[in-house]
């Protein structure tokens, strides 16, 4: 990965897993510029971005993050084994390669950028690549697992009967809410939500314009990534945040006794508040510090994406109250 990025950024070269001092400043500038275009202004959020230095910056910073996010979402459900994989808007292939590494099978990377597809195949020759514009048509064939990482598409796709669709977007309000809107549209088209959702009803987060759902993944990045985090001030070197949804053609097993943690409130004096969601809706679960006990001790460690059983809670005006007798179990 680092050697491919060095070539695109015209860096002199150095150790396999570390940027030299002479390389770091140039690489950090490229990463910061692409971050501004993708996250803040979003003027660079299109396939034409991924050439030259911008593609090199993507390989250094966003590629390993996207890879880890896909691996994390694959652990939240039972994915098909050795599937036929389609990666839509694949770029240099982090999503497809993550799925291949986790599940085996075969994968087609589909993208409008020839340069990005070239990097994808160089990084993993198992990938088949196909250049194409999503607005003008989709690859032919049937697929068991379709990935759309950072690409929201509302086009019809030909799936196998047991096909699975994974949509993954940045943890921004705009992209997160767009993903949930797409989820609701796909449910109307005959799909079923498998993860992280525990309901087939319209997403309750969309009821308020302030809300959306995010997940998190902890990881240990390569050394060059930590160097770039320090140099740019961009923090993604311990915790990755993202929005995702998994949909299939068949309904999941009902899990009426479980909730999914979908948000964490900022620290509050004397209490901890987390947002949980199930078929009953999206509510806050609140534990006062004075009510901490052995039975509810796992509440302090809940993270976004966790499945949790909330026993003996009490409905209050601010949500579910986790009292000293409440029993909290992470699943």
Low-pLDDT residue spans: none
Overall structural class, as computed from helix and strand content, comes to alpha/beta
What is the count of DSSP helices, taking H or I runs of 4+ residues? 7
- Globally, the shape reads globular
Radius of gyration: 21 Å
- Find the count of extended strands (DSSP E, 2+ residues): 15
- Rounded average pLDDT: 92
Topology (elements, then pairings):
Blueprint: H1 2-9, H2 21-40, H3 52-74, E1 84-88, H4 94-103, E2 106-111, H5 114-123, E3 128-131, E4 143-149, E5 159-170, H6 173-188, E6 192-195, E7 215-218, H7 223-232, E8 239-248, E9 259-264, E10 271-278, E11 281-288, E12 307-311, E13 314-316, E14 319-321, E15 327-330
Parallel strand pairs: 1-2, 1-4, 2-3, 4-5, 11-14
Antiparallel strand pairs: 5-8, 6-8, 7-8, 9-10, 9-12, 10-11, 12-15, 13-14
Question: What is the structure about, briefly put?
Answer:
With 331 residues, this protein is an alpha/beta fold.
What does this protein look like?
The strands form two sheets. Strands 1, 2, 3, 4, 5, 6, 7 and 8 form an eight-stranded mixed sheet that branches. A seven-stranded mixed sheet has the order 13-14-11-10-9-12-15, with no helix packed on it. It is built from seven helices and 15 strands. Helix content is 29%, strand content 27%. Helix 1 runs antiparallel to helix 3 (52-74), helix 2 packs across helix 7 and helix 3 (52-74) runs parallel beside helix 4 (94-103). The model has no long low-confidence stretch (mean pLDDT 92). The two termini are 35 Å apart. With 331 residues, it is of the alpha/beta class. It has helices at 2-9, 21-40, 52-74, 94-103, 114-123, 173-188, 223-232, and strands at residues 84-88, 106-111, 128-131, 143-149, 159-170, 192-195, 215-218, 239-248, 259-264, 271-278, 281-288, 307-311, 314-316, 319-321, 327-330.
């Amino acid at each position: 990965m680092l050697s491919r990025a060095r070539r695109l950024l015209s860096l002199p070269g150095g150790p396999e897993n570390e940027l030299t001092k002479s390389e770091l400043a140039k690489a950090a500038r490229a990463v910061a510029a692409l971050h501004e275009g993708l996250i803040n202004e979003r003027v660079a959020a299109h396939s034409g971005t991924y050439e030259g230095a911008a593609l090199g910056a993507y390989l250094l910073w966003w590629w390993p993050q996207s890879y880890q996010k896909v691996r994390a979402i694959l652990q939240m459900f039972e994915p098909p084994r050795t599937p036929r994989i389609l990666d839509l808007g694949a770029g240099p292939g982090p999503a497809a390669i993550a799925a291949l590494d986790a599940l085996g099978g075969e994968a087609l990377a589909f993208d409008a950028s020839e340069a990005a597809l070239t990097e994808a195949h160089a990084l993993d020759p198992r990938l088949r690549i196909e250049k194409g514009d999503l607005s003008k048509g989709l690859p032919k064939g049937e697929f068991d697992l379709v990935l759309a990482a950072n690409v929201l598409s509302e086009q019809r796709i030909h799936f196998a009967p047991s096909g699975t669709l994974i949509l993954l977007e940045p943890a921004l309000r705009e992209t997160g809410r767009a993903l949930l809107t797409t989820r609701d549209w796909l449910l109307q088209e005959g799909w079923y939500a498998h993860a992280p959702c525990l309901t087939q009803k319209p997403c309750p987060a969309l009821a308020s314009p302030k809300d959306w759902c995010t997940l998190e993944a902890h990881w240990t990045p390569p050394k060059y990534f930590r160097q770039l985090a320090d140099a740019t001030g961009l923090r993604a070197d311990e915790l990755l945040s993202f929005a995702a949804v998994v949909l299939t053609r068949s309904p999941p097993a009902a899990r009426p006794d479980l909730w999914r943690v979908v948000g964490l409130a900022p620290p509050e004096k004397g209490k901890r508040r987390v947002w949980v969601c199930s078929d009953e809706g999206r509510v806050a679960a609140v534990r006062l510090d004075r009510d901490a006990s052995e039975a509810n001790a796992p509440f302090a460690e809940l993270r976004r994406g966790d499945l949790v059983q909330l026993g003996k809670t009490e409905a209050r005006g601010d949500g579910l109250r986790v009292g000293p007798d409440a029993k909290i179990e992470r699943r």
